[in-house]
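Table 4 source record.
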Amino acid sequence: MTLYGEKSPPADDRPTVQVTAVTWPDDGPAAGPAPVPGEPEGGPRRTGRMRMLLAAGVTGGVFAAVAGAGAWAYAGDVPRGTSVLGTELGGRSRADADRELRAELERRAAALAKPLTVTVDGRTAEVNPADIGLAVDVPATVAAAAEANAHPVSRLVGSRTVDPVVTVDAGRLDDALRKVLGDQAQGMTMPAISYQGTTPKLVQPKPGLALDPQRSAEVVRAGWLAGTPITVPLVESHPATTPEELDKLVAELAKPAVAAPVTLRTNKGSVKVPPAAIAKSLRFTADKTGKLTPSVDVKRLRAALGDDLNAIEVPAKDATVTIAGGRPTITEGRSGQQLDTATLGSDLLAVLPKSEGREVTGELKPTPPELTAEKLTSLGIKERVSTFTTRFTGGLASSRSQNIATIAKDVDGTVVLPGKTFSLNGHTGERGYAQGYRDAPVILNGKLVPGVGGGTSQFTTTLFNATYYAGLEDVEHKPHSYWFDRYPAVIESTIFWPDLDFKFRNNTEYGVLIDTSYTSSTITVSIWSTKIYDSVKTEYGPRRNITTPKLIHLEPGPSCIATNGINGFTQDAFRVIKKGGVVVKREKFTWRYDAEPRYVCGPKPS
C-alpha cells in the first residue's frame, strides 16, 4: 500500500514527496476485524495502537527528509546545477560564485586576450579585445546565474548553463570596424537644400549601407567567447527625410521664402530684409539620421543686412585706453541698442512660407559695451613692456608709406585680453582699395610686383618684434622668402590676405595694449601691460648654406621692378627670456632665405 505525505502549507514551496509505508511481521491484515470489548491488552487493540504510533513516526521521518532536501536545494544564492563557462556555481553564495568565476576567467585570460578575426564587407582584420573594451561583467553574470530557473522542483533536480554577460565599448568598436571597412561603406546621401543666389538647389536623399554600432556590438559580444571568426553585417539605412518630404519642403518653404522681401519693424523704424539676405540666412540642416530641419541663422542674417541695420541700431562702444603724457588713460565706453535675436529667427521663419503679411516685429534692447572702464582698469595695463621700430624710405607721400600708416592706425589702441589670441588678418579684414590701401610693391611668385597693400608686411614685422620682446606667445608667423636688411633676420614676418596671417596669444594674466605711432620714416609698435620678465633678448647662430643671386631679365613695363639681388642663407635665432635673474625660456627660430634674383627690366644683351 502506498501512502503520500501531507501537503505542506501554501507558504512552504517545498515539493510533495512520495513515501512508501513499512509493514512489521506481527501486523495483521491491513483490514482486520474491529477489536472486541474485554479482550486481553495484547490483542488486536494493542496492535492497532502500535500501528498508529509507527505511522506517525514514519510520517515525521518523511517530513524530516523533505525538510533536509529543501535545505539542500536552497543552500547558497545560486541554484544547484548552475554553471557558467563550464564552472559550477550552483549552491554558492554570490561572493563565492564571483570569486570562482573570476578564477575561471583568469585561467582563460590568454585565450580571451587573443585578437579577434573580424570581417566587414569582405575585408578581414584582427582586433584586440582590450582595444574595444570587451570583457565579462562578473557581477552581472553572477546575478543572472542566481536568478536562473529558480522554480522549486528545478532547484532539486536538473542542470542549467548561463551565458556570461559580455560588455563592449560600442563607440570604440565602431571606430575599429570603420578602419577595417575603409572607404567601402556606402553612406546615406543626406537630403540638402541650399541656394544659388535665390534659387533653391536640392540633393535628393538616398539609402546607404553602413555599420550599425548596436548591431555590431551584438555580433561581436556573441562571437568573442566562441573564439571563431566574426562577420559583422552592414545595415541598409534610409534618411529620415524622404524625397517626397524634401519636395514638399521646397514647395512650401524654400521657394516662397525668397519670393519677396520681409519687413522688419521696430520702434526706431523699419528695415527691408531682401530675398538675397533671406537666402543667405535660411539654413536646412540634416542631423545624423537625415532629418532635415529649417532655421534662420541670425548671425548670417545680420551679416547679410550689413549697414542697413544702422538705420535702427546704435552700436555699443567699448572703453578705450590711450597713451597720453607717457602713461595709460582710460575713457569710458557707452551702451548701445541692438536687435533682440532671441526670437527673431523663429519669428522670421514663421512668415517665410506666406505670400502676404510678410512682416515681423523686432525689439531693440540695451547692449552694454563688452569692455567697460572698470574691467579695463583691472587688467593691469600700467607700463610699457616692449617697443620696436623699423625704418622706411620715401616719406609719407609714397603709397607704401601710406599703407603702413593705414594699418598702424587700424591696430592702434587694440586691447588683447588674457588668454586671447590676436589675428592681424582677423582684426583688419581684407586690405583693399575700399579700406584705403594703395598699390605698392609686393612679393608674388618670387618677384616684386605692384599690389594693393604693399608695405603692410613692414608693420607686421614691427608688431611681431614688439610682441616677441614682450615675451608673448608666437602663434603664427612666416618670414619673407628673401631677407631685406631693414628687418632683423629670422625675427620678421610677412602677411597676405587671406592666406598668410600673423597671430600672437596673450599668455599672461594681464591685459595687453598695442600702441602704434609713425613718422615720415619710421613705424613704432609698443606693448603696454604689466612687466613680468627681467629681459627678452635674441642670440643668433652663424649664417650657413649661403647662396648667391641669379641674373634674370624681365620684360620692361609698369609691372617690372628691378632689384640688385640678395644672398640666400639659413640662420637660427634664439629668444632668451629671463626672470628672477635666471633663464626661464629659450626658444629656437630657424628660417631659410632664398637668394633674391637680380632682376633687370630689359632683354639680355646680344
